[in-house]
Amino acid sequence: MSKGPGVFSDIGKKAKDLLTKDYTADQKFTVYTYSDAGVALTSTAVKKGGLSTGDVAALYKYKNTLVDVKFDTQSNISTTLTFTDILPSTKTIASFKLPDYNSGKLEVQYFHDHATFTTAIALNQSPAVDVSATIGTPSVAFGVEAGYDTTSGNFTKYTAGISVSKPDASASILIGDKGDSFRASYIHHLDQFKKSTAVGEISRKFSSNENTFTVGGSYAVDHLTVVKAKLNNHGKLGALLQHEVIPKSVLTISGEVDTKELDRSLKFGLTIALKP
Known about the structure:
This protein is mainly β. The protein has a single domain, classed as Porin. It is 3% helix and 64% strand. The chain has one helix spanning 13-20; strands spanning 27-34, 39-48, 51-62, 65-72, 77-84, 90-98, 105-112, 115-122, 128-136, 140-149, 154-166, 169-176, 181-189, 196-205, 210-220, 225-232, 236-246, 249-258, 267-274. The two termini are 30 Å apart. Belongs to the eukaryotic mitochondrial porin (TC 1.B.8.1) family. GO terms for molecular function: porin activity; voltage-gated monoatomic anion channel activity. This is Outer mitochondrial membrane protein porin. Pfam families: Porin_3.
C-alpha cells in the first residue's frame, strides 16, 4: 500500500485511542493460541454487570487473503474476508453475520500517495452507501465522509475533518452529524522516546448546547508498565494500569468515578490477555 494520508477514520484516531482505548468497566479474560496450520485462535470471556458472554475467533492468512470468523454465545457467526491488492493499491473487505442475512457489507479501499478513497455498501434489498475521500500527505490530510440511504434518497451523514501530524505532536478537527457536532483534539509527546504523552479534546453539540472538554495522558513507567488517566469538565475521572506480567501477556486494571458522586459512581474493570 502507499504511504499516503490514510483513510478518513484515521483523522483524530490517536487522541481518541489515548482517551478511550483499554478503559473498561467489564471483567474480560482472553487467551490467544496458534495452531500448526497457521490459524490464530482467540477465546474471550466477558462479565458485564451480571451478564456473562463470550466468543471464539479464528484468524487465518493465506497470501493476500485474511479470513476472520467469530462465534459468540448468542449463536451468531460473524465472518470478515479481507483481500489485499486484488487490484493494484486496493483493499477489499467483505463481512456478514449469521443468522442476520441482511448484515452483509462490502467495502473497497483505494490508496494513492496523495489520496485515499473508500466505498462501503450494505448487501441487502435497501442498501445504504458510505463513501469517504482523504487527500494530502501523512503530515497534513483533509477528508470528507458521507452516507446515503438509497430507499429514502436522503443523506444519513456527512462529516469533514482535517489533521496535522508531526513526529512529536498531532492535531485534528472534525465536523460531523450534518454540521451539528464539532470535535478538536491535540496530542503531544513530552519526550523523544514517547514515554510521556498528553492529550486534550474539546467537543460541542450545537443542537443541545453541550460542551465537553477532556484532558488526559499516558506514562510508560518502564518497558513493561504503562499508566493512563483522563478527566473531563463534567467530573468524570478515569485511570488505568497496564502491565506485561509475562512476555506478551498483559494485565489491565481500570477504573472510573464521577467526582461529583464519589459514594456511588465507582466503576472497576479488569482485563487479562494471555499470548503464547
